[in-house]
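Suppose you are handed a protein chain with no further information: no name, no annotation, nothing but its sequence. What can you learn? This example shows the usual starting point.
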Amino acid sequence: MYPFADGCFAPRNGWYVAAFAEEIGEALVSRTILNEPIVLYRKADGEAVAVGGRCPHRHFPLGASTRRDDDIVCGYHGIAFGPDGRCTRIPSQKNIPPTYRIPTFPLVEHGIWLFIWMGDAERADAGLLPSLDEIGFDSSDLTVRPIAFHEVRCRYQLLNDNLLDLSHLSFLHGSTSGGTADAETPENLSQTPGMLRSRRNILNEAPPAFLSGLYAGLPDRVDRISGMDFYLPGFHAGLSEIRHIDTDGGGTGRLIHHARIFHAVTPSTHDRSYYWFASGNANHLALDFIRENVKQVIAEDIFASEQIEQMLQLIGHHPGELMLRTDTGAVRARRLLQGMMDAERQRRQPHGAA
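A reasonable first move is to predict its three-dimensional structure. Written in structure tokens, the prediction is:
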């Protein structure tokens, strides 16, 4: 499965976004994550929970069922399950076997997102999530809003690859992002456990086209910082700064525009993914503008990813890639993700197995 080893398509022991927090309320919400059906909902006390989405009796989807207080009542035969996974009622019999239950999954509300852990529950450490301060979410001058959610017909690593090589901004998004500066500017990469950081300092270039809709009287040339922090296995925190050109030798000019852009990519099946987009900005009008104008950019990213997926399906094998210098970040990320999956497979092997 491109681009990973046979039998691998995504790590399980990691925090994935399951929903924007505002998506989940009393209603049952169905998702498929890592090929497993999931139901998300909030209990009466407001706590969000994630349980298996399949009734163990005849495999009816629990997301298509109903609620009774905090329990899910299967819509086929009325079997009820609590938020802890235990069966609480079987209408056709009084005895409830202790093994009659559905799985539950650790779920953490963090910022505007709900993160789920699909792997070994005992490894689900919320401390592995990036802090809200670290990703710029808690910045006092920014308001962060959910912008978009999409189901995408491609394997999740294609969306990760897209976000890990921003040189495509100059071409796939040429009408909104400007000229070729993103592709031509060297990328500075750094790495810490669980995170890969990319920065480009794009100096003395024309401002991106979209800024003309936000700011009057823009200078003809600006300095720009473009960056992305990838938190394995599927959360990307982007940074965009536009400044007046430094003329006094101080290193940075006066700030024109500052934004944080958040992308969450979650594997649904081997060839389907979920994608969430959120943005943080000090200007509320800018957030409204972004909500409308980012639709084209997201559509272009989805188009490219789905087209590549179709090509890979057509080829039907592991194609080689003629790599470029700008692929360094994506290749590093693939290796880190493969390392996570290798470690998981190693732990699953019987003691002493080769």
